[in-house]
Amino acid sequence: MASIRKILMHLAADTSSDLKLNKKAFIAAGSIAAGFLGLMLLPVAALSSICNIEAPSFRDIEADREAVISQLSPEQHEKMSNSEADGQAIAEAMKKIGLQEQTIKAQLIYMSFFDDNRLTDFEEYAGFFVNDNEQLIPALNEKYSIAVDYDEFMRTYVLVMNSTINQYMFSNAGTKNAADLAAWCRNAYISQWRYAENTFGERTGDERIRCADNVGLIMGYIRYDTKSKTFTDDTVNLAYTVKGGIETLPDIPGVGVYNGNNFGVHIGGGQVIFSSAIGGIQRQPVSAGNWTSWCTFDAVTYPQEMNEPTTETTTGA
To answer: Could you say which of 71, 133, 141, 308 has the lowest number of CB atoms within 10 Å?
Structure first.
């Protein structure tokens, strides 16, 4: 079975060979060939990592898009249009069943393995993604007679997820809210962000891996502008309010936990995600850590039921 990396590279080269494009347009052509026009940053980021090419800005991609499209053959244009329509159909189906965060995963598998077998029932396809990855891949292979290798897919999926900020994780991108903070932390864990001092989720170092320190994991969400897809520096310090002892922690995703030195984010179900110099982004049960209290973050809005008088004092980090 051809690897997903080879599929992406082959598609990019197949399109660009006829167009004699420069490096910037080559990356845009790769994104079109890969069928992710609705997710322009995803394939660009993926190809950037795979090919070790510096990704252009979002505006550069948009500027090149029309130029590249105008040079496609009728067959390539039809394939592009079909891929864009199918990608959007998958996004809508995933949102309908409440699995919006997994949209990129569903699109990546579909665009890589369903090239000669377009689906008509996208809701049935989306329904498979209620399973965890170890159950998902065999189920898809059996249902659709495809051959996705689990280990290889997971390596590629992590690469793609680390290369981009998953726009589908946000339930309300226009606000800074508790649910999306929890989703941000889940995304960092799935994407295997690493730890580096004074980082907030940016891609850093020679390997261009996303990193965040302990406070930076939370500050990254607060600083991230979903419209410009950039990190701002408007907020300098992490302001938080201690609410009570850890024994009174509510089962609300996005609530912070604290041990006097470090922070974590409760993502629900008694699970916490945090960034540590030992191990990077980690996930563990609340009971496995040494958390002593829970808190809210002042820049984040919380459900109405939490708007009760504060029992502790507001501090900053």
So the answer is: 308
Distance CA 314, CA 140 (A): 49
Cβ proximity of 256 and 249 under 8 Å:
no
Q: Is 121 helix (H, G, I), strand (E, B) or coil?
A: coil
> In terms of Cα–Cα distance, which of 24, 243, 8 is closest to 113?
8
Which tens digit of pLDDT belongs to each residue from 278-287? 999 999 999 9
Tokens of 253: 């995703």
163-to-10, 12, 125, 146, 203 alpha-carbon distances in Å: 20, 17, 25, 26, 8
pLDDT at residue 263 in the model: 98
240: its two tokens = 């938080």
In the numeric block, which tokens belong to residue 291? 């958390």
- Looking at the DSSP bridge assignments, the partners of residue 281 are 275
Closest CA relative to residue 32, chosen from 68, 57, 6: 68
Buried b (16+ CB within 10 A) or exposed e, 237-274: ebbbebbeebeebeebbbbbbbeeebbbbbbeeebbbb
Residue 76's closest CA among 22, 4, 15? 15
Torsion over CA of 133, 134, 139 and 144, rounded to 10 degrees? 60
pTM of the model: 0.75
Backbone angles phi, psi at 121, to 5 degrees: -110, 90
Q: What is the pLDDT of residues 50-91, one digit of tens each?
A: 333 344 444 444 455 566 566 667 877 777 778 778 888 999
Question: How far is residue 235's CA from residue 238's CA, in Å, rounded to a whole number?
Answer: 8
Average pLDDT of the segment spanning 10-17: 41
Average pLDDT over residues 180-184: 97
Q: What percent of the chain has pLDDT over 70?
A: 74
Domains of the chain plus CATH, in order, are 4-163 (no CATH), 172-317 (3.90.1720)
Is 213:188 a contact under the CB 8 Å cutoff?
Answer: no
